[in-house]
């Protein structure tokens, strides 16, 4: 099992995100993954830096920690050719420490280019085509592709790393998990669901299984739960809502009745190591072996110290 840290790009400035990546390496994390958003989720979030720029800066200031997007939608806002080039460059700048996490996206980020927001079945078709285009470009030389949704015309990525980046495919359900097994190198999820791991493996997936573990470290359980409510109440809505709303104001309206107790049910809140391990164990028991810890608490420096001294040793006992 490996333990990583979630860089919450919606809640912190780009410079702070890079500083947190450096601090995560110092604290002993194995990897960091950063959200790739155009908009933040809720009004308390006032940031949304460009993921690949932040990763490049983090690569320059670190030496051992692995880096990943968590996750990039490789169609609509981006063309997969651009993602293929960005990922290849990031892998080179990080000396092979980069993993490309991709998924079927959210309206929140993709509607901004005015190209519409397809139904989920269509998005899965587009995700398959995007993966095929990225792989094609990473095979070298000039390439073209004529798909149902996406096209590529006489394109080449000139700077390719060796080895190529791992591709982790995000799944909110078994259909996407099967895409991860068929076309990806790893699975990425946000829920402790063993059915996602089963679907991934049944489709031929043999690689790492990434999951985001929701924690909110604080001096008291109440402070942790309230901080989690402010920063992560959107997560209570579930993916069928998260994928469809267009702007932070809509998430504010959708989560108006969410309380700190709702977040307490999902997050490890407060200073108790045992509670945080209990939350993480759900993901280990479901079959995930790459745990990306979220800290939705109010004190990031305190969390890093807590992780290094208490939580990291306890997690590895799992």
UniProtKB/TrEMBL annotation:
Pfam family, one: Bac_luciferase
InterPro entries, sorted: F420-G6PD/mer, F420_G6P_DH-rel, Luciferase-like_dom, Luciferase-like_sf
Alphabetized UniProt keyword annotations: Oxidoreductase
Residues in Luciferase-like domain copies: 9-289
Transmembrane segments: none
Protein name: LLM class F420-dependent oxidoreductase
């Amino acid at each position: 099992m490996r333990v990583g840290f979630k860089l919450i790009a919606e809640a912190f400035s780009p410079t702070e995100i890079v500083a947190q990546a450096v601090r995560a390496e110092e604290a002993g994390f194995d990897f960091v993954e950063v959200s790739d958003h155009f908009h933040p989720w809720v009004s308390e979030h006032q940031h949304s830096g460009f993921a690949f720029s932040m990763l490049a800066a983090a690569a320059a200031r670190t030496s051992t920690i692995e880096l990943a997007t968590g996750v990039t939608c490789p169609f609509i806002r981006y063309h997969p050719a651009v993602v293929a080039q960005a990922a290849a460059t990031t892998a080179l700048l990080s000396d092979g420490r980069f993993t490309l996490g991709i998924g079927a996206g959210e309206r929140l980020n993709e509607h901004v280019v005015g190209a519409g927001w397809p139904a989920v079945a269509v998005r899965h078709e587009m995700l398959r085509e995007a993966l095929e285009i990225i792989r094609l470009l990473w095979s070298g030389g000039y390439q073209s592709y004529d798909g149902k949704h996406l096209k590529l015309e006489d394109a080449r990525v000139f700077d390719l790393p060796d080895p190529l980046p791992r591709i982790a495919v995000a799944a909110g359900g078994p259909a996407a998990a099967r895409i991860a097994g068929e076309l990806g190198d790893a699975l990425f999820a946000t829920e402790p669901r063993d059915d996602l791991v089963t679907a991934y493996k049944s489709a031929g997936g043999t690689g790492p299984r990434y999951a985001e573990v929701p924690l909110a470290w604080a001096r008291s359980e109440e402070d942790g739960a309230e901080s989690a409510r402010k920063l992560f109440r959107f997560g209570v809505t579930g993916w069928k809502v998260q994928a469809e709303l267009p702007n932070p104001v809509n998430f504010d309206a959708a989560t108006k009745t969410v309380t700190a107790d709702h977040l307490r049910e999902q997050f490890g809140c407060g200073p108790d190591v045992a509670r945080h391990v209990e939350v993480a164990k759900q993901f280990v028991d479901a079959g995930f072996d790459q745990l990306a810890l979220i800290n939705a608490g109010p004190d990031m420096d305190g969390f890093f110290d807590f992780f290094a001294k208490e939580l990291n040793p306890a997690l590895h006992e799992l």
